[in-house]
Design a protein that fits this description.
Length: 607
């Protein structure tokens, strides 16, 4: 497409949506200033106390617009099988017709912003460009932080670069077709929501929500759903993964990517402050990695984003001091509580709650109120560049070579603290079979166990069976000695009383240390039915208040429970029909054989 087609698209969209004004954005500081002033005066943003939290703001959403809406998220491919059994499918023409009727006049009385953005450093061969049209200035401000908003994108497009048209409206016009006015609100949105993706033509149409992944279209919509479909066509991987560099006390560095479902610890691991002396972790990304094979038969990864859109609750001075430091200024907060002195608070920021707050709904709150002051999916938006542990590679066009890939989830039972795959194919099986307890990051039943393969269940833009095959193919294309090793981790196993068995957070460095020692061939591992486990004594638990019984519980592999998991996996795999790679059935049979053959668990970290 050419620059002309951008103009054409903007003109056609304006004709359809009928805004009162069009503003072409440039991502500048002046634009930030104008839009924050505008939103403070309209009441959408509250300016926080500049002495405590300079250039920072609080937004409170409509209570019905607080998280991603997975049941309103659609993959519109010509054939239903190409969206697959894990996605909501609609026919592309049907969806576009319907959306045209919703977008018709949807921006009446509002300003339409045209936001050119790059996912990835703009000069990176792995970067991809997009243009978001939105009628939400709050979205524009978030895009400033989360992506690289720049008019340079137009130059790249003029020079022939591909781009993704990403159309967004909150669906709350200020006038109807007869000119009758409806009053504005501080968080306009529509009860009817559509987050629609057209992977075959790389287009996004999002209607009705102003929140997070529903509306910041560079994030899940482009970088994961459209990105995964592009990656399949072009031979790369778009993943829901954090990215870190780990350096050992001896100075050896490793790059690790880790896929955990939403609100399952990516930001925390990305900002890990190791409790083990001499170890260092530096941050490259906390949510999305774009990974491509290079000419050495190795995988290289970039973080396509430029900011964190992090879960606030549970982010505390003790659990994640790096995040707390990162957001001390220039931060947008959404749905957290407001303190009496004009600062922010949420559950877990400090051990004790302040006596008087205004909660996320705008009502007075005190510790006896009996409900959370911040919404469980409240978030902070802040630039990566402010992170004290940021790695210089976060902004490097060539990205970093990957040494290990971790898969994880929130599992109270069954899944051990860490287990290593036997090989790439087994690693893909581990990723494909991840299940996790649902969190508040999406509308749904918090705590319900669900399959979340590769932490991509809500984010894969095509048939998940084809996605597994793509992973197998990418692995085959790598030099064997350069393939990242694959591990599964679980920080969330609980004891019989429902208490976490593992301290987590900074102590996760102990697991990272074991993984690094495996990569370095410094330690052996013990074979079990589900993969290779640490041998007794190799996982450093010095100084941890953890009993031998608890440790053995964290690594326990219950054969009966795993046989049940295998049955559930078989039923799950059946949904994919002939799109299920033969390698996945083979791995399931191997697991079954191992469970019968070994009793599952003769390698135990025991007293
Ligand atoms: P998304 O941004 O939704 O993709 O989430 P995320 O994967 O980045 O999750 P994040 O790191 O923000 O963590 C979500 C919640 O899990 C927070 O409340 C954390 O406090 C909690 N958490 C993170 N790591 C650990 C851990 O090691 N142990 C325990 N028990 N909780 C953790
Ligand atoms: C997630 O839910 O995985 C997030 C938050 O990272 S959102 O951007 O809303 O998707
Ligand atoms: Mn995420």
């Amino acid at each position: 497409m050419t620059i002309l087609s951008v103009q054409q698209w903007v003109a056609e969209t304006a004709k359809l949506t009928q805004p009162s004004e069009i503003i072409w954005c440039d991502g500048s500081a002046a634009e930030w200033q104008q839009l924050t002033d505008l939103l403070v005066s309209s009441g959408t943003l509250i300016r926080l106390n500049p002495e405590l939290r300079p250039n920072s703001f609080l937004a409170r959403t409509d209570p019905a617009d607080v998280a991603r809406v997975e049941d309103r998220t659609f993959i519109c491919s010509a054939h239903e099988e190409d969206a697959g059994p894990t996605n909501n499918w609609r026919d592309p023409q049907w969806m576009k017709n319907l959306l045209r009727s919703r977008f018709k006049g949807s921006m009446r009385g509002r300003t339409m912003y045209v936001v050119p953005f790059s996912m990835g450093p703009i000069s990176s061969p792995q970067a991809r460009f997009g243009i978001e049209i939105t009628d939400s200035p709050y979205v524009v401000l978030n895009m400033h932080i989360m992506t690289r908003v720049s008019i340079e994108v137009f130059d790249r497009i003029s020079a022939g670069a591909e781009w993704v048209p990403a159309l967004h409206s909150v669906g709350a016009p200020l006038f109807d077709e007869n000119g009758i006015a409806s009053p504005d609100t501080t968080w306009p949105c529509n009860v009817e929501k559509y987050i629609a993706h057209f992977p075959e033509t790389s287009e996004i149409w999002s209607y009705g929500s102003g929140y997070g992944g529903n509306a910041l279209l560079g994030k899940k919509c482009m970088s994961l759903r459209i990105g995964s479909a592009l990656g399949r066509k072009q031979g790369w991987l778009a993943e829901h993964m954090l990215l870190v560099k780990v350096t050992s006390p001896a100075g050896k560095a490793f790059n690790i990517a880790a896929a955990f479902p939403s609100a399952c610890g990516k930001t925390n691991l990305a900002m890990l402050r190791p409790t083990l002396p001499g170890w260092q972790v530096s941050t490259i990304g906390d949510d999305i990695a774009w990974i491509a094979p290079d000419s050495d038969g190795r995988l290289r990864a970039i973080n396509p984003e430029a900011g964190f859109f992090g879960v606030a609750p549970g982010t505390g001075i003790k659990t994640n001091p790096v995040a707390v430091e990162t957001m001390k200024a220039n931060t947008l907060f959404t749905n957290v509580a407001l303190t009496e002195d004009g600062d922010v608070w949420w559950e877990g920021l400090t051990d004790e709650a302040p006596a008087n707050l205004v909660d996320w709904t705008g009502n007075a709150w005190n510790p006896e109120s009996g409900k959370p002051a911040a919404h469980p999916n409240s978030r902070f938006t802040v630039s990566l560049s402010q992170c004290p542990t940021i790695d210089p590679a976060w902004d490097s066009p060539e990205g970093v070579p990957l040494d290990a890939i971790l898969f994880g989830g929130r599992r109270a039972t069954n899944v051990p603290l860490v287990v290593e795959s036997r090989d790439w194919e087994h690693g893909v099986f581990m990723g494909a079979t991840i299940s996790s307890e649902q969190t508040a990051a999406a509308e749904g039943i918090v705590g319900a166990l669900r399959r979340d393969p590769f932490a991509m269940l809500p984010f894969c833009g095509y048939n998940m069976g084809d996605y597994w095959q793509h992973w197998l193919n990418v692995g085959l294309g790598l030099k064997q000695e350069n393939r990242p090793r694959i591990f599964q981790v679980n920080w969330f196993r609980k004891d019989a009383n429902g208490k976490f068995l593992w301290p987590g957070f900074g102590e996760n460095a102990r697991v990272i240390e074991w993984i690094a020692r495996r990569l370095n061939d410094e330690v052996l591992a013990g074979a079990s039915a589900i993969g290779n486990l640490p041998i007794l004594g190799d996982l450093n638990v010095d100084g941890l208040a953890i009993s031998p019984e608890q440790l053995s519980e964290i690594f326990k592999i219950d054969t009966a429970a795993w046989s049940q998991e295998a049955d559930l996996t078989e039923a799950y795999f059946a949904k994919f029909g002939d799109r299920l790679p033969a390698a996945m059935s083979r791995q399931l049979e191997l697991l079954r054989g191992n469970l019968v053959g070994t009793g599952g668990s003769e390698i135990q970290v025991a007293s």
